[in-house]
Design brief:
The complex is a heterodimer of chains A (about 325) and B (about 210). With about 325 residues, chain A is mainly α. Chain A has nine helices and seven strands, in the order αββαββαββαααααβα. Chain A is flat, with a radius of gyration of 39 Å. Classes of the chains: A mainly alpha (about 325), B alpha+beta (about 210). Chain B: One of its GO terms (cellular component) is nucleolus.
């Protein structure tokens, strides 16, 4: 009897252990990302509902994190992200071998360490390789055997010295060339460049014209020996400022009109988290609020919004109507 | 083909400044009056195979469609970068320099041939010189009919020129148009060459895209 009861209880207990759908979502708090691998969505409405569930799950997880209370609300430190994102750029190609490397490989030349001391047979002792009292010092050659090909009156010691000097000069010239080649190689050869020339459609881009203008003014200033006319310089500066301001005003559609400048937004309706009503939750209630999702702010919030660092959790009451793109700066500014 | 970077631009403009002085501003901010586009653009410098070209923007835009190894030249070649990365002006720049030159030297007809053969200009060959030419200033050499023959360096300032012997050098020869057309000079004779109108190097002045 007792065992029968126990059996019944165990069976009923099995049904009590139910896997919450929320547990099967892949939630990456570091990236504020939630992903349901088993979702199948057939209509827009279903999409909304599903998204709401996902965001709710994420929110629940966020509230589970340990939080500190600040005057603006809860502050939570997100854990490091768990999803590994793919490489943004392709793997860097190995550096092309230098002329010497190619040659050495072809010839089979390997690096070998030279010792500091070398044995000098003439004096039967160990001498250093370079420096004071070195092996084979050219100044210490006592005599040079005369050859038939030697012209009379020619000083072979002098010849040795001159040969050495010319070799040193040739070596330094080659070094100059190789340093230029090295610079080009580091700059990225002929490919790398500070600005793209034809991006803006016209022949010369603005950056190129700017560079040209800068160089030109530098050169003209260097060669201009006139005494500085302060009045002229001041008026020139004023004219430049005026034209710059006129250009900026034209861009923003008239004087004072600021349509979508970001710096004003944060002071107005606030971000997704309306800070006004955040005060009521500043005490840090444990119960996570229900997220109201509407088509308008769905875009802004998104299912995977990418935020790093601290996130202020005030009341997650969405501003309906005016969606705002989520970005890290809005979330973290006070 | 690519634009010049800052060091290269500095070198090129410094060289041009030697001959053209403060007119360098006009040279750079010049607008292309005739061209392939309805709205004329300016001019810019482009580097292609170590040579620097002064091209109008309408041509540059079109030249980007040509493969690097197939592009022979574009606009006006004003000079080239040598193996040790120094910039040297070539004679094909003469049209440009002559149009904006500050200091000019006119050479007598008797000394034209001598200059075109590569000799320096002597006091006896000097017809006219602009006032206040400093010593070692870059100058453009003209014939008496105002045809630019080449460019060089003023060996003496204008004031010093008056005190010279007839055999003293007034202008150091750097480049002349006979370098560009050696066969023309020999085969067709200089008189024909020298009677041509000022834009003496049409071959190099216009865009060559092929």
């Amino acid at each position: 009897m007792a065992s029968q009861e126990q059996a019944d209880m165990s069976v009923s207990n099995l049904s009590a252990v139910r896997v919450e759908p929320a547990d099967l979502y892949a939630i990456d708090l570091g990236n504020l990302m939630v992903f349901d691998p088993r979702a199948t969505i057939s209509s827009a409405d279903e999409c909304l509902v599903k998204a709401r569930d996902l965001v709710q799950a994420l929110n629940d997880k966020l509230y589970d994190l340990p939080a500190t209370i600040d005057k603006v609300g809860r502050i939570v430190t997100l854990p490091p992200p768990s999803t590994r994102l793919p490489r943004e750029k392709p793997i860097p190609k190995p550096r092309p071998p230098t002329k010497w490397e190619v040659f050495a490989q072809k010839k089979g030349i390997t690096k070998r360490k030279r010792s500091k001391l070398e044995y000098d047979e003439q004096t039967d002792e160990w001498r250093r390789r370079h420096g004071y009292k070195r092996v084979n010092d050219e100044n210490e050659i006592p005599w040079i055997d005369a050859k038939d090909t030697d012209a009379p009156g020619e000083d072979p010691f002098e010849k040795l010295k001159v040969d050495r000097q010319s070799w040193v000069a040739r070596k330094s010239r080659k070094k100059v060339h190789s340093s230029i080649r090295k610079q080009l190689r580091e700059k990225g050869g002929k490919g790398a460049f500070p600005f793209l020339p034809v991006v803006e459609g016209r022949g010369a881009s603005n950056k190129e014209r700017e560079q040209l203008g800068n160089v030109l003014s530098k050169i003209l200033a260097r060669h201009d020996h006139d005494i500085l006319d302060v009045g002229k310089a001041v008026s020139k500066y004023n004219v430049e400022e005026e034209s710059k301001r006129a250009k900026e005003n034209k861009k923003t559609g008239g004087k004072g009109a600021r349509k979508f400048s970001d710096k004003n937004r944060s002071s107005k309706k606030g971000g997704l988290f309306n800070r006004k009503s955040g005060g009521s939750r500043a005490g840090g209630s444990k119960k996570p609020a229900v997220i109201k999702v509407t088509p308008l702010n769905l875009w802004g919030w998104g299912v995977s919004s990418y935020l790093k660092g601290l996130v202020q959790l005030g009341s997650p009451q969405f501003v309906v109507g005016a969606w705002q793109r989520v970005n890290a700066y809005q979330m973290t500014t006070t | 083909m690519r634009p010049l970077d800052e060091d290269e631009t500095t070198q090129v403009l410094e060289k041009l400044h030697k001959y053209v002085g403060s007119n360098l501003k006009h040279l750079i901010e010049r607008q292309a009056t005739d061209g392939l586009d309805s709205k004329p653009g300016g001019f810019c410098f482009r580097l292609h195979k170590q040579r620097v070209y002064y091209v109008s923007e309408s041509i540059v835009r079109r030249a980007t469609n040509i493969a690097r190894d197939k592009l022979s030249s574009l606009g006006t070649c004003i000079g080239k970068f040598t193996k040790s990365a120094k910039f040297k002006l070539t004679v094909t720049c003469l049209d440009l320099l002559a149009a904006h030159a500050k200091y000019k030297i006119w050479v007598k007809p008797s000394a034209e041939m001598s200059f075109l053969y590569g000799n320096h200009v002597l006091k006896s060959g000097l017809a006219r010189i602009t006032d206040n030419t400093p010593q070692y200033q870059g100058v453009v050499v003209y014939s008496m009919s105002d045809i630019p023959l080449g460019f060089g360096l003023a060996a003496k300032s204008t004031a010093d020129c008056r005190k010279l012997d007839p055999t003293d050098i007034v202008t150091l020869h750097q480049s002349d148009i006979a370098i560009a057309f050696p066969t023309l000079t020999i085969a067709e004779g200089t008189s024909r060459l020298l009677k041509r109108p000022p834009s003496l190097i049409p071959f190099f002045s216009q865009a060559r895209l092929f």
